[in-house]
């Protein structure tokens, strides 16, 4: 079992910045992928950015150049620095952990960007 705790969501004006963090605990396999997905009202959940324990990243085209994903393997944390936020970034952001034990999701944190 892996538990994920997210933090850092909130309300921000367009053009502003937010930083999301997610901490994993439990049975953590050494090789894993951590990252962020989001779901806007009425839309399907979509990948935002993920990063492997080896440092390989996959970032959605819609956020490239604005969002940066990073992780601390020693602390089992992943962060998402979000800059130049747009109203279309408004969504619930979910942390996801994938490893030998399967997929685990956080409860989500709401990011609201006002225009």
Structural features, described:
- It is globular, with a radius of gyration of 13 Å.
- The chain has strands at residues 2-7, 10-13, 18-26, 33-39, 46-52, 57-59, 67-72, 77-82, 91-99, 102-105, 109-114.
- Helix content is 0%, strand content 58%.
- The strands form 2 sheets. Strands 2, 4, 5, 6, 9, 10 and 11 form a 7-stranded mixed beta sheet that branches. Strands 1-3-8-7 form a 4-stranded antiparallel beta sheet, with no helix packed on it.
- The protein has 115 residues and is mostly beta strands.
Which percent range describes the beta-strand content? over 45%
Mean pLDDT: 96
Structural class computed from helices and strand pairing:
mainly beta
Inertia-based shape: globular
Q: What proportion of the residues is helical, as a percent range? A: under 10%
Strand-helix topology:
Elements (H helix, E strand, L loop, with lengths): L1 E6 L2 E4 L4 E9 L6 E7 L6 E7 L4 E3 L7 E6 L4 E6 L8 E9 L2 E4 L3 E6 L1
Parallel strand pairs: 2-11
Antiparallel strand pairs: 1-3, 3-8, 4-5, 4-9, 5-6, 7-8, 9-10, 9-11
């Amino acid at each position: 079992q892996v538990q994920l705790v997210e933090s850092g969501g909130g309300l921000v004006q367009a053009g502003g910045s937010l930083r999301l963090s997610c901490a994993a605990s439990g049975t953590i396999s050494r090789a894993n992928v951590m990252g962020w997905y989001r779901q806007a009202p009425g839309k399907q959940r979509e990948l935002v950015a993920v990063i492997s324990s080896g440092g390989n990243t996959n970032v959605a085209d819609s956020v490239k150049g604005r969002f940066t994903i990073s992780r601390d393997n020693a602390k089992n944390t992943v962060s998402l620095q979000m800059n130049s936020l747009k109203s279309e970034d408004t969504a619930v952001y979910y942390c996801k952990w994938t490893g030998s034990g399967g997929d685990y999701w956080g409860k989500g944190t709401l990011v609201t960007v006002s225009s």
